Amino acid sequence: MIPAVYRIERRIEEMPGTFTLSLLPGAREEVVSLRPGQFNMLYAFGAGEVPISSSGTADTPGLVHTIRAQGAVTRALERLREGDTLGLRGPFGNGWPVARLAGRELLVIAGGLGLAPLRPIIYAQLQGSMNVHSVRLFYGARRPAEVLYRSELEQWGRALEVVATVDHADVNWPGRVGVITAPLSTAQLDPQHTVAFICGPEIMMRFCVQLLMGKGISPANIYLSMERNMKCATGHCGHCQWGPNFICRDGPVFRYSDIRGWWQIPAL
Question: Is the pLDDT of residue 120 over 80?
Answer without folding.
Answer: yes
